[in-house]
Amino acid sequence: MSIPKGILADDITNAGRGETLIGNLLAASMLSDAIKTSFGPCGLEKMYIDIMGESIITKDGGTFLRKIDVEHPSAKVVIDGANTVDNSVGDGTKSSVILVGSLAKNAIELIKLGISPAVIITGYQRATELSLETLNEISETRNLEKGIFFDLVRTALSSKSMSSLVDDSENLSKIIVDAVCSICDLKTNYIEVDDIKIEEKLGSASDTKLVKGVIIDKTIDNRLMPRQISNAKIILINEELDAVRTKTESEIIITSPEQMSSFLEAEKTEVLRKVKKIAESGANVVFSRKGISDMAQTYFARNGIISLRRVKENDLFWLEKATGAKICQTIEKISPNEIGTANHVYEKEIGDDKMVFVEGCKKPKSVTILIRAHSKKYLDEFHRTILDGIYVLRDFIQNPKIVGGGGAFEAIVANKIRKVMTSVDGKEQLAMEKFADSLEQIPLTLATNAGMDYLSTLSALRSKISSSNNGRCEWYGIDTNQRKITETFSKKIFEPKILKEQVIKTTNDVISILLGIDDIFMKTPEMFTHTHANGTTHAHKGGSLKHEHHNERLDRLGKEQRGPHHYY
After folding, report:
1. What is the mean pLDDT of residues 352-371?
2. In the beta sheet, which residues pair with residue 211?
3. In the beta sheet, which residues pair with residue 10?
4. Distance between CA atoms of 394 and 186, rounded to whole angstroms?
5. What is the C-alpha to C-alpha distance for residues 171 and 369, in angstroms, rounded to an integer?
6. Where are the extended beta strands (E) located within 193-269?
7. Is the confidence at residue 151, as pLDDT, over 80?
8. Are 220 and 308 in contact (CB under 8 A)?
9. Full 3-state SS string of 424-438
10. Are 287 and 308 a contacting pair, CB within 8 Å?
11. pLDDT per residue over 446-457, tens digit each?
């Protein structure tokens, strides 16, 4: 029931109790239905076309949810929850949305039976606590070894778009594992994901490779410089090797040609002095954050030194970690500790561009994965796929415990909840049962997308799980390749424990928020109507805020730079 007009201001709308609660739950359920079909190895991709007509094709749940615009506030709560999962563990966004949607749909059924939202929240909370307890009981600790790393990455990548586009997905998993093993500290369970640089270039996906060093997307400064150097001595500088340009306006008064000549000569002498200091340090490769003059480049070339100017700041940080060099703050006193090393520094043509490779670093704490794909759209998706694999390993390294994949964990927990709920009094028991039903949507969605029969799979899965009480946990889940129920541990289908923990916690938080809102009050935004120079009249939110509509500006900046209200 909504509040009648006359009580609220004219620009305030009231959805009404009852309608709001059901509407919130329906919004979550419909968002879940939209993403279900992309779940798992056999899931389909989503295409999103933005306002400029640019499209992305992805199976990544986090990417899709961030791209789509939703109006309903409850749908936004679900997306925020999915983003929380993505930011925390790097994966599991689709699982969380599917669970929230199923819990919301089941909550509607309970509400129609006359069960209070407060009772449903309590029942869901009990089931959540039991799920987390069961997770701690059945999760298995594994040593931090390459074998388990490989299995975890392979499982994670199996549900991504690029798994079907890369000829050798096993090699891709190996690349990710080798990259992580190169930069992490297994003794302290420490890993910094940003220490892995991902460089993109158009080409064949099979040419994707790991470089134990850094790739710089630039060319060597001067054509007279060597194109490659072995036993490289590397220096990183953050100082101009060019005529100094002041940050503020300044004026130099010159009254004669001799003064001009003297001034230019002084500038030249200063640059040359710095360049000689670098050469005397023994460095034969120079990476500069700032400019390097033609004269400095010529001197370097004559002395067999390679230089790269205007290198990105992040690239310098990666070079520091890979080569052991330290960014030199002053050229006046170059310390031997500031000079890094690498076996090879060379320029190589990749696709239509040239890039500089710094390879063969002794103990690199930064590495580069060069990814190749035939289009920019697939490069972006490839990048996301690689990151998902890295995040899965990060999760496991920080908490080295695993559970069975393929929906096995969810099926086991659902079975446990059904056993325990019989001891719970009251209507909370019904809510716990619905929570168990929702957990089963994970393996059942995998099965459905793989072409398996829903009801047959459900009955067979419940039968196998309930009969596996022989003293040990048997991880029965969905093998999408064989389209059958299997013991996923024997198939080496694993997932990190911490991922499941985050999904369950976030899911419970989101559904509790949705069930706790019984009414919505919304202020209607003021609409501003205006006419363009071409005679077109339209309205948009924002009131009478000042903004430009000059055709000259639009023509100058181009279509892509126009304000968003032009497409409202």
Report:
1. 93
2. 368
3. none
4. 11
5. 13
6. 196-202, 209-211, 214-216, 228-237
7. yes
8. yes
9. CCCCHHHHHHHHHHH
10. yes
11. 999 999 999 999
Cα angle 321-324-328, degrees, rounded to a multiple of 5: 95
pLDDT of 567 over the 50 cut:
no
Q: Which residues, including other chains, have CB under 8 Å from residue 231's CB and lie 6 or more apart? A: 341, 343
Give, in order, the Cα–Cα distances in Å from 417 to each of 157, 227, 414, 420, 445. Answer: 30, 66, 5, 5, 20
Q: What percent of the chain has pLDDT over 90?
A: 60
Q: Which two tokens stand for residue 138?
A: 């059945």
The residues with which 202 forms a beta bridge, in sequence order, are 373
Burial 137-157 (b: 16+ CB within 10 A, else e): ebbeebeeeeebbbbbbbbbb
Q: Which residue has the higher pLDDT, 201 or 545?
A: 201
Mean pLDDT of 228-232: 95
CA distances to 15, 24, 107, 111, 524 from 19, rounded to whole Å, are 7, 9, 14, 12, 19
Class in CATH terms, 12-140+403-515: mainly alpha
pLDDT value of residue 57: 83
Match 């939110």 to its residue by tokens: 541
When pLDDT is averaged across residues 28-53 and rounded to a whole number, the result is 90
So what's the pLDDT on residue 333?
A: 80
Q: How far is CA 75 from the centre of its chain?
A: 21
Q: In the chain, count H helices and then E strands.
A: 17, 21
Q: What is the pLDDT of residues 96-108, one digit of tens each?
A: 999 999 999 999 9
| Rounded to 5°, angle at Cα 219 from 213 and 222 | 125
CATH of 214-363, one of 3.10.25.10, 3.40.50.11810, 3.30.360.10, 3.50.7.10: 3.50.7.10
Q: What backbone phi and psi angles, to 5 degrees, belong to 295?
A: -65, -45
- β-strands 285-288, 228-237: how paired? parallel
What is the C-alpha separation between 107 and 124, in angstroms, rounded? 10
pTM for the predicted model, two decimal places: 0.82
**Span 295-347, pLDDT tens digits:** 999 999 999 999 999 999 999 999 999 999 999 878 888 888 899 999 999 99
SS3 359: strand
Q: 563: exposed, middle or buried (C-beta count within 10 Å: 0-12, 13-18, 19+)?
A: middle
The DSSP code sequence of 476-531 is: EEEETTTTEEEETTTTT-EEEHHHHHHHHHHHHHHHHHHHT----EEEPPPEEEEE
Q: What is the pLDDT of residues 372-414, one digit of tens each?
A: 988 888 888 889 889 999 999 999 999 999 999 999 999 999 9
* Cα separation, 244 vs 250, whole angstroms: 12
Listed by start position, the domains of the chain span: 12-140+403-515, 214-363, 527-567
Amino acid (1-letter code) at residue 305: I
In sequence order, the 6+-apart residues with CB closer than 8 A to the CB of 519 are: 14, 15, 16, 17, 20
DSSP character for 562? S
Q: Which residue intervals of 113-194 are DSSP H helices?
A: 117-138, 146-157, 169-183
